[in-house]
Amino acid sequence: MIKSVFQIERAKYSPKMPKALTGSVKVVEGEKTDSVADQKEIKKLFPGTYGMPIITFEEGGKGVAFPEVNVGVILSGGQAPGGHNVIAGLFDGLKKLNPSNKLYGFLGGPAGLVDHQYLELTSEIIDEYRNTGGFDIIGSGRTKLEEPSQFDKGIEVCNLLGIKAIVIIGGDDSNTNACVLAEYYLQKNTGIQVIGCPKTIDGDLKNEMIEASFGFDTACKVFSELIGNIMRDANSAKKYWHFIKLMGRSASHIGLECALQTRPNVCIISEEVAAKEQTLEEIVNAIADIVTERAKNGETFGVALIPEGLVEFIPEIKVLIAELNELLSNGETAENFQTLATNTEKRDFVIANLTYESSKVYASLPTRIARQLTLDRDPHGNVQVSRIETERLLIEMVEKRLTELIKSGIKVKFSSQNHFFGYEGRCAAPSNFDSDYCYSLGYIASLLIGSGKTGYLASVRNTTAPAAEWIPGGVPITMMLNMERRNGEMKAVIQKALVKLDGAPFKAFAEKRDEWAITTSFVYPGPIQYWGPSTVCDAPTKTLQLEKAK
Question: One of 172, 202, 434, 436 is an active-site residue; which one?
Answer without folding.
Answer: 202
